[in-house]
């Protein structure tokens, strides 16, 4: 639908009929990542040098879900998985297997298009980093974060998330 292809047009700018038509004509892929790992990544990429992780988390919690930045806003509110029927949900940490499957489904060769991933190393690093960062938080902050990301934790199988406990 070329008439709808404009830069940075949000889906909410269209009426329901147009939205249903557009979404029906695309293969919809949702990439998901443990919300606590998303927080760590946002911290490391943005404010990591100017504040402690605990202070950063408190700022996130104080801002509330409505004012949360896109990098740490709950995925359910960003991607609307209850309203949009995604064809694929790809979990961070399993990119190589899942992207290979996705490319094969699209009829593309995985040999030339699939970059090298070090999923095992990435998972181990994030596991260690998550535990270190999680230990810096107060019990109250941990509970508030679990509540903040309640819908993400319910919607997606983040079985190893520290926030699930």
TrEMBL record:
Major location (coarse): Golgi
Location in the cell: Golgi apparatus membrane
Keyword set, alphabetical order: Carbohydrate metabolism, Glycoprotein, Golgi apparatus, Membrane, Signal-anchor, Transferase, Transmembrane, Transmembrane helix
Annotated GO biological process: carbohydrate biosynthetic process; dermatan sulfate proteoglycan metabolic process
EC number: 2.8.2.-
Listed Pfam families: Sulfotransfer_2
GO cellular component: Golgi membrane
UniProt GO molecular function: sulfotransferase activity
Source domain of life: Eukaryota
Mode of membrane association: Single-pass type II membrane protein
Enzyme class of the recorded protein, top EC level: transferase
PANTHER family: CARBOHYDRATE SULFOTRANSFERASE (PTHR12137:SF64)
Family in the record: Belongs to the sulfotransferase 2 family.
UniProt protein name: Carbohydrate sulfotransferase
Gene: Chst9_1
């Amino acid at each position: 639908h070329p008439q709808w292809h404009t830069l940075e047009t949000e889906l909410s700018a269209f009426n329901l009929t147009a939205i249903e038509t557009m979404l029906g004509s695309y293969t919809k892929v949702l990439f998901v990542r443990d919300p606590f790992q998303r927080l760590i990544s946002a911290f490391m990429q943005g404010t990591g040098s100017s504040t402690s992780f605990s202070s950063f988390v408190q700022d996130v919690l104080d801002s509330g879900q409505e004012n949360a930045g896109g990098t740490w806003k709950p995925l359910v509110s960003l991607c609307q998985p209850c309203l949009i029927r995604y064809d694929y949900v790809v979990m961070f940490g399993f990119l190589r297997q899942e992207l290979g499957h996705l490319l094969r489904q699209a009829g593309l060769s995985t040999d030339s298009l699939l970059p090298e991933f070090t999923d095992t190393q990435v998972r181990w690093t994030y596991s260690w980093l998550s535990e270190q960062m999680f230990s810096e938080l107060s019990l109250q902050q941990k509970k508030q974060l679990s509540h903040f990301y309640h819908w993400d934790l319910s919607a997606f199988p983040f079985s190893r998330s520290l926030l699930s406990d």
